[in-house]
Here is the input.
Amino acid sequence: MLLKNKKIVIFGVANKYSIATGIARSMHEQGAELAFAYQNERLLKNIKPIAEELGSEILIECDVSNDNSIDQALKI
Here is the structure.
């Protein structure tokens, strides 16, 4: 388990077919504890089931095209 006890924030998950979803699954299999960042409320409904499947309860709203959104996400 290469990533055991590592905490990782996953960006870029739009749905179960996203490359970021595959990366998250792989990291989870390697023991990582995951948090998921989502761009907006519309995408949250897609990310929730993936996060639950991978044992994550941490969902962070963060639109990386908006500096204020990034600042708010980093305060968590």
Remarks:
- The first helix runs from residue 19 to 29.
- The domain at 7-74 is CATH 3.40.50.720 (Rossmann fold).
